[in-house]
Amino acid sequence: MHFHAETTCSRKTGWVTSELYYWHDTLNWCGFMEPSLDLQPGVHFENPETKRRLQNLVEATDLAPKLHAHRPRPAPDEVIRTIHPQSHIDHIARVCASGGGDAGKLTPVGPASLDIARLAVGGVIAAVDKVMDGDWYNAYVLCRPPGHHALPDVAMGFCLFANAALGAKHAIDKHGLSRVATIDWDVHHGNGTEAIFYDDPRVLTISLHQDNLFPLDSGPMEARGAGAGEGYNLNIPLPPGTGTGGYLHAFDELVIPALEAFGPELLIIPSGFDSCAMDPLGMQMLKSSDYAEMTRRLMKVADKHAEGRIIVTHEGGYSPQYVPYCGLAVLEVLAGTSQTFTDPFDDFIGAYGGQELSHDQRMLVEEVRRVAFGS
Ligand code: ZN
Q: pTM for the complete prediction?
């Protein structure tokens, strides 16, 4: 069945948000570092503002009444334990009970963060249930804390639980799927999602990220999966400065062919907008219309193979000014609406030097294709 982009009837886009997501406290860290005698305390990059401003922008547009809002409930620990051991939950509980601190590697938490992390997982699980049951065509989960760096037993890179991976696991365990794809365009490597499914052929994990940004020494193109999962992990480590041309070329040459060969029954997008041109942590060059275009291309795959099923989980993205426009662009495409609001930054960023496909980017994509597809 094929749906046209402008068809709005009978297609519901779920919109999972909670004010409580913004109450996850990342303490008075400076950027992403713990204050010390060398570092004045400041604002943590992963603070509520980027996501809250996205919610505010949606409310300011004609898109809001078209979305199907859902109030999430905390995921039960038995769902979280399908990936994370009880010892990981207990460890986070202890740090929260102590008043907060680093729950792992660069992952500050406040007193209520465990409960809010359960609520983030609960939002993703609800979206999977609604989309799999046919209540929604697709869904956007605007959750905090993010999840794609979390390992089964280590909180990492602002992530406590592996939200997107838990959604994929739930789709397999509860809804009987055998082919789920994750397409992660956050500027950092989706190392947690990769690790969780590295030897599992039921989940194709794809990550487009800035080469060797975070975690360090993670996300090389040679990491293709192991055992039964060999060939089901695809890393695309793009050089810094990659913009519209490089990303869309990587989509056409690598992401879409890999998805077409896999034939996913559900697509999950761990979506970080730190690959945008205005991000303080990344050095890529995307603009909101690029995220819209990548979403459109994934929707074509989803329409062909997965009855349209796509779930977006919000990951990184640290520009409070620009993340809202990127998120809105993705939501508009998911909801099949024409542009509801003009992005005042889009023309500026589109005119930046280096937006077109460069020689280095083309060579990188060719190398990944050779390593990944043998052609
Ligand atoms: Zn990120």
A: 0.97
Residues whose CB is less than 8 angstroms from the CB of residue 114 and which lie 6 or more positions away in sequence, other chains included: 89, 92, 93, 96, 160
11 Cα–ligand 1 center, Å: 30
Q: Measuring CA to CA, which residue among 222, 180, 214 is closest to residue 197?
A: 180
Q: What is the pLDDT of residues 240-268, one digit of tens each?
A: 999 999 999 999 999 999 999 999 999 99
Distance from the alpha carbon of residue 55 to the mean position of ligand 1, in angstroms: 19
DSSP letters, 29-92, are: -BBTB--BTTB----BSS-THHHHHHHHHHHHSTTGGGSEEE---PPPHHHHTTTS-HHHHHHH
Strand, coil or helix: what is 111?
Answer: coil
Q: What are the pLDDT digits (tens) for 33-64? A: 999 999 999 999 999 999 999 999 999 999 99
pLDDT of the residue at 3 = 41
* Model confidence pLDDT, tens digit, residues 184-211: 999 999 999 999 999 999 999 999 999 9
For 86, list phi and psi in degrees, rounded to 5: -55, -35
Yes or no: say if 90 and 358 are a contact pair by the CB < 8 Å rule: no
Could you list the active site residues? Answer: 149
> How far apart (Å, rounded) are the C-alpha atoms in residues 63 and 65?
6
Ligand 1 center from residue 185 Cα (angstroms)? 9
The domain limits of the chain are 13-19+46-72+121-373
H or E element in which residue 271 lies? strand 266-271
Nearest CA to 69 among 141, 144, 137? Answer: 141
Sign of torsion over alpha carbons 360, 362, 363, 364: positive
13-19+46-72+121-373 is classed CATH 3.60.15.10: no
CA of 4 to the centre of ligand 1 (A): 31
Q: How far is the CA of 209 from the centre of ligand 1 (A)?
A: 9
Q: How many angstroms separate the alpha carbon of residue 7 from the centre of ligand 1?
A: 32
The total of other beta-carbon atoms located within 10 Å of residue 194's CB is 26
